[in-house]
Every structure is written in C-alpha cells, then in structure tokens.
Amino acid sequence: MNAPIIYTRAQVGISAPQVTVETHLTGGIPRFTIVGLPETAVNESKERVRSALMNSQFEFPRKRITTNLAPADIPKIGGRYDLAIAMGILAASQQVPLRGLAEYEFVAELGLSGELRPVSGILSAAIAASAKGRALVVAPQNAAEAILLGDNKVYVCETLLELCQHLEGKVLLNLHEPPSPTVKMTIQASPDLADVCGHYQPKRVLAIAAAGVHSLLMVGPPGTGKSLLSHCLPGLLPELSQPEALEVAAIHSLAYGGVNASRWRQPPYCAPHHTSSSIALVGGGKIPKPGLISQAHCGVLFLDELPEFRRDVLEALREPLENGVITIARAAGHVSYPARFQLIAAMNPCPCGYLGDHQHECRCTPSSIERYQNKISGPLLDRIDLHVLVRPVPTSTLVQRENNGPTSVEVRLQVEQARALQDGRQGCANSALEQNKLADYCQLSSEAREVLEGAIEKFGMSPRSYHRLLRVSRTIADLESQELIASQHVTEALSYRNILGH
Asked: Which CATH architecture has domain 193-410?
C-alpha cells in the first residue's frame, strides 16, 4: 500500500513550516527507523510512540517501519512529532481510517500511557494550520494558546485513544471555542503617574515616549525615581493590535513554552539585570532562542544602571534599535526574530551618583566621570531619541503630595489619540517612520525650519540625530493634534537631546 501522509509542524524561529510524516511498513526483521534529519529527542520518540500505542489498546506492528519526516533539510527538534508519527503508524497498519486525515494537523508529545502533552510554539503552528484550512489537534495545556487566533479550528484531546475514537466517528470531539469577546482581559497593575511626586518634565517626556514609541534615557542621582517612572510606562501604552499581539505571543510561546492568554494583548515589559549576557539579551544558543529584546517586541525593554552592562551587550542593541529585527547566525543556519522594542534606560551621572545633586557632595574626579559616561558609546546614544535629567524632588513637594499632574489614565487617552493620528496618517508610530517619508509627514512651519537649521549648524548634528529630532517633534505636535510642526515643538524636542555631551 502507499505510505499514508500525516501533517504536522516544525518550529523555525517563530515560523512553523509544514512537515509531512510518511510511514511505510514492510516485512522482514522488525525495526523502527525515523529519517529526515531528526535529532536525539525525535529519535527517542520511537520508544514513546511504541509504549503509547500498546497502552492505548492498539497493536504495534511487528514489521520493518520506516517513518520519513519531510522535508529533510529542516532540522526536527523535540517531541512535537510524536502524535503525528503515531497516527502515521496507525494509518499505515489500517488501525484508523485514512479518510479525513488530510483535514488535520497533529502537534503534541506523547506520554508512555498515551496521554497528549504540550509543546512550545503552538501558536505559530495554529496560525500556519489555519492558513492551510486544516484543523489542529493539540494537548489540553496548549488549548488556550492555540485558539488565540479566534477563527481557526482546534481539537483538544486528552489521550491518543480519544483522538482515534473521534476519527472513527465513535465519540466525536467538540471544536475548542475561543473565549467570549465580552470577557474582559486581565490588566497588569502599574504605578500611576499621579502617585509620582514632582518630576513634571520627566513625566512629560514619558508621555512623548509613549505617544511616538521613542527610546528614552533618564539620568539622575540614585533614589530620584527613575525606576518608578519606567514602571509607569506600561500604564500609558495602548493595547496591542491583534497582528502585534499574535506576533508577541508566538515569541513568548517559544521562549517560555506558553502564553498567558488573559494578558496577551498587553505590551510586554522586560527589565533584565545588568549582569545579563549578550546571548540572554539578543538571543542565541545551539538552537537559537529569542532573547529579551525579542521578548520585549512591541513593548518595553528597561535597562537600569545602563553603564554597568557589558560594552558588547550594549553595542549588540544598535542594529535592532535601527532595524527592529535581530538575526542569529549559526553553522546550521540562521534565524531572524522581530525585535521592535521601546528602549527605556536609566543611569547615574557619575560613579558615585551624586554629580549635580545639591544635597550630596560628588566625590568623583573629572577623569572617572568621563570614563563612566564613555561606557555608553556615542553611536548608541545617537540612537536614543529622548534624554532627560531626573533631579531630586524638593522636600516641600515630597511632603505636600499635591498637584502631581495628570493620572496615567488621562495621559493614556492622549497617547491613544496621538497613536490614532499616526496610524491614520502613515500607518505606523512616528519612531518607525521611514526616512524617505519624513518630508511628506513632518511638514515644518517657516519658524520651525529656521530653528531646526540653526540647531543643526550649532550642534553639528548627524543625519541620524536630525531625523530622530524630526520624529520627536512630530510626536509633540501630534499630542497637541497639530498638523504642522511649529517652532515650539522643535524647541522642546531639542531640549531632550544628548545631555551627556558625547
């Protein structure tokens, strides 16, 4: 008989290419062989499949079994092919009907007793299966993630026997339904801007950063509230669109082995420790996994104590900050992960932290201050749109705790309105506005043009700095719903440029 074909999905980055499982049974000495570039865990599936079939009341054929995982040029990793291999053997030995198998894709690991177990990256498989018009069969633990797409067919099975009874028409499984749209999603609590005493300029800069998805560097003495301000940012960000949320969820599924379905529309927030390696940050490993910059895709990456990060770690951020993608190359091939994150960084002005603080004396020498600040390279600083000083709050402001400005909810409404303007005008946030479109969407008044030209000559701005200044000016104008960029918008954007003097 012809070898039956069973469909499943591999995992390459956040994509899920199709894998066909072909099974052929012949006479001779009983032997079970898997071909098609399987790694160790896939070869071990032979014993899992054998035990699962026998413990599920099926016969394991005493024949020469050859299972081919095609195409052979895609490395096969993990136990995600177990269920498809088992279905191939059952179909080849005519223990389950061939009719209708082509309408399904099977992605699950098998336990020795025949139960279905979850795998990572199931959302990518669900998206790919839906595009082919096939139903996806998954383990119960993968169900909530697999139905995030909303309009795809997902069947959830506890055991191999339960699945086979469904295929034979004896006990039909129900399609797993997505949650009702009326069910409200859980929102992770963030500090409220109104709870932050003083800091009116840093809070204004935070609103600009949120509105245009701009990167931000906060410089100030320890204990002034830099970390608290950064933790307020998630409360200012709009909910992710469905395409963005699906992309983020696919990354998190691969990185963490699952997705929190109750918060999957929330922008991610990552805050790695300064001892993190470059692999932890940008991704890597023998089997390249997404790093923190990809896990923060469409969200926030907060780097506290920025100069304490290793130089190679910081320099690795330059390319993804510019391009929004990171490519990890290995001998076996390369994998690209999206990394369009919003960088928020904080640092002290000097090694002791008290340079410019009127309440504490700075003990650092000019040379030590220069060495400390030079840990942040000029090219990296040039890629950070907004720079702001976070000074100590006066005691009177701290004690009175009155008139702390707008709440996070009020600022978020302004941010959402500004984002809506940007989406309607150019289809992306201002920070992602391409250089060749700046002239079309960043139109300047005559006074603003004069201010900008004078600033370029006075400060010797690079073309990159000029373009970033233009994007920030556009965002400030959007917060005021102004179509034309005025001189005050450019002047304010100029006040948030490089304060370290590189």
From this structure: 3-Layer(aba) Sandwich (3.40)
Q: Where are the alpha helices (DSSP H) in 96-220?
A: 122-131, 143-146, 160-167, 200-212
Q: What are 110's strand-pairing partners?
A: 116
Question: Where are the alpha helices (H) located in 81-199, listed in sequence order?
Answer: 82-92, 122-131, 143-146, 160-167
How is the beta sheet containing 31-35 ordered, strand by strand? 31-35, 64-70, 18-26, 5-9, 104-106, 135-138, 154-156
| Topology of the domain covering 5-167 | Ribosomal Protein S5; domain 2 (3.30.230)
Indicate whether 282 pLDDT > 50: yes
Instruction: Please state the pTM of the whole predicted model.
Output: 0.89
Distance between first and last Cα of the chain: 73
Structure tokens at 414: 């302004």
Tell me whether strands 325-330 and 333-338 are parallel, antiparallel or unpaired.
Answer: antiparallel
**Helices (H), ranges, 387-430:** 395-400, 408-425
In whole numbers, what is the pLDDT of the chain averaged over residues? 91
Q: Per-residue pLDDT for 185 more than 70?
A: no
Question: Do residues 296 and 287 make contact, with C-beta atoms less than 8 angstroms apart?
Answer: no
Instruction: Report the length, in residues, of the chain.
Output: 502
Strands 283-284 and 289-290 come out as antiparallel
For the chain, helix, strand, coil in percent to 5 are 40, 15, 40
